[in-house]
Design brief:
Mean pLDDT: 76
Distance between the termini: 38 Å
Order of helices and strands: HEEEEE
Shape: flat
Structural class: mainly beta
Number of strands: 5
Length: 80
């Protein structure tokens, strides 16, 4: 988002830009997974790889989902 707003990336921020993917959805980043976190104190984070997504929410524990092409997420405990 910083790149899209023509802002410099702070030195303490890691990761890669999503701008190429947002500009052209056919762009292949070469990455096989995506990770993100929300703050250091609340312990909420997610990891996505292919059709699978794992979420850790503070106070809720882990949740795993299989994602479908129509943006429907099926809880992993319902998958046989």
């Amino acid at each position: 988002m910083l790149e899209l707003a023509n802002l410099a990336r702070p030195d303490n921020l890691d990761g890669r830009s999503l701008a190429p993917s947002l500009r052209d959805p056919r762009f292949a980043s070469g990455q096989d997974h995506l990770c993100w976190a929300e703050g250091k104190k609340n312990g909420t984070w997610s990891v996505r790889q292919g059709r699978w997504k794992l979420i850790q929410s503070a106070g809720w524990g882990h949740s795993a989902y299989r994602l479908h092409a129509d943006n429907i997420a099926e809880p992993a405990d319902n998958i046989s």
